[in-house]
Structures are given as C-alpha cells and as structure tokens.
Amino acid sequence: MARGDQKDMLSRLLAVMPRWFADSSPTLTALLNGVAFCLAYVHQWYWFAKQQTRIKTATGSFLDLIALDFFGLSLQRQPGQSDAQFLSNIQINMFQERGTRKGVSQILTNLTGRAPLIFEPSRPADTGAYGTNSIGYGFAGGYGSLSLPYQAFVTAYRPASSGIPFVGGYGSSAAAYRTPSATEYASKGMTQTPVTDAQIYQAIDSVKCEGTTIWAQILSSPVQHSIPPLLNISFILDHSQLR
User: Are 216 and 231 in contact (CB under 8 A)?
Assistant: First the structure.
C-alpha cells in the first residue's frame, strides 16, 4: 500500500466511518472502494500536476514549455532526447556563465564532451612572448596581432563517436553471407551524434560577449595548432573584449 493509492484511501475512509457498522461489512467495503478509486485517481493527478510546477521534476511536454518560457525557440528538445538529457541541457543553459572566455569553453565542453581550442590574437597568454618559454616555432604560441581587437578564433570538436561497435563490416572475416556472424544493416542514424554543427555555432553565439567577433570552425578530431578562421558568427554591436 502506497500513500494515496486506492488501498490507502479505503483505509482512511474506513477509519472515519461511524462505529455502528460491523467490523466486516462487504457491502460497505465495496461501496467505499468505488469512492477510494476516484480519490486515488484525483490524488495521482494532483501529484503529477505538483511535479510539473518544478523544473527538476517536470516531465514530457511540460519540460518543453519550461524551455520555451526561459529560452524561447533557442533551446528545443532534439529528436530522441530523453527527459533527463533535456533537463540537464536546460539547467546547463540556465546557469551558464556568459560573456566570458570561460563561458565559451564551458558550454562547448558541456555540449560536446570535448574542450575547445580558443585563441585570441591580442592575448599574450595565447600568443606567447619573447623571453619566455611560452613560444616556439612548431611548439607553442601563435601569431598575435593588435589589429584584431575584440576577436577570437574558436576550434570546437564534435562529440566523439564509437561508430557501430561489435558489428562486422564488408571485408572482414566476421562478415559473410550464409555465415553466422555479428553483422547487420547499418544506417547513418547509428553513427550520427545528437549534437549538430548548428547547435555548436548557436551555443557559442548564446554566450559570447556582445561587441566581440568570434571566428569558429568545427572539427571531428583535434588537429594540433589548427586555428584557421572559417566562420564569422558575430555582429559587432559595441566594444567589449572577450575575456
């Protein structure tokens, strides 16, 4: 017997009945069981409604409504995304640090599971400096420039994919017609990650400081010292520096 279920409601009704009924009354019990069923049904919906009023316990379409209230159309549930995954995404975006270099790194790491490479040409900590051990051709640092104020280059990485494990492919000894093997027909959906490139660009744009320009590229795997400017996703509105 759980709190609020039919048996619980029946026991509560019997506890307040007048004493002139016999200890065992099948007719009375049957009648009260019908009332208890209705009360348990109402209690179930009350408890469900109460859960939907809090972000941590909301489920289904109520989570989508919460995301719509806080973020508009900028944060939507992805196809196949569970309530737990979507809730985590909502909480991350709700308390996400914004307007800072750390915020850009955090949101991309949370989204893809891989830390991005961020380079600011006017930041000595990124470019290195003569007389220190933070610079060297083919080793560390990058070309700096004061003619690129309020700009940064971000290399983001797509989530790591394990392909289709435990399934043999053509050309392998485990895959052959009329031979028992771990093979199956595959589709693109079995290898695609739930994070799209558009979401990665959107994540950067949602936390970048206004007035800064971020040039971004997305790679599937890290490439050492790869910082080419590929895509400008920014609009210069004022003069705030990304730090």
Answer: yes
105 and 9 within one domain: no
DSSP 111-132: HHSSPPEEE-TT-HHHH--TTS
3-state secondary structure 134-191: CCECCCECCCCCCCCCCEEEEEEECCCCCCCCCCCCCCCCCCCCCCCCCCCCCCHHHC
Give yes or no for a contact between 174 and 181, defined as CB atoms under 8 angstroms apart: yes
* 199 vs 205: CA distance, rounded Å: 10
* pTM for this entry: 0.56
Length of the chain: 243
Tens-digit pLDDT profile for residues 76-93: 888 888 898 889 888 888
Instruction: Give the tokens for residue 193.
Output: 């990650």
**Per-residue confidence (pLDDT) for residue 160, from 0 to 100:** 79
* Look-up of token digits 């560390």: 140
My answer on whether 111 and 82 are in the same domain is: no
Looking at the structure of the chain, the number of domains it has is 4
Q: Which domain holds residue 65?
A: 54-95
Q: Pull the structure tokens for residue 106.
A: 């955090």
pLDDT along the chain (243 residues), means of 10: 86 84 81 92 93 92 92 83 87 85 90 90 81 62 80 90 59 56 56 74 88 90 52 38 38
Helix (H), strand (E) at residue 205: helix 197-207
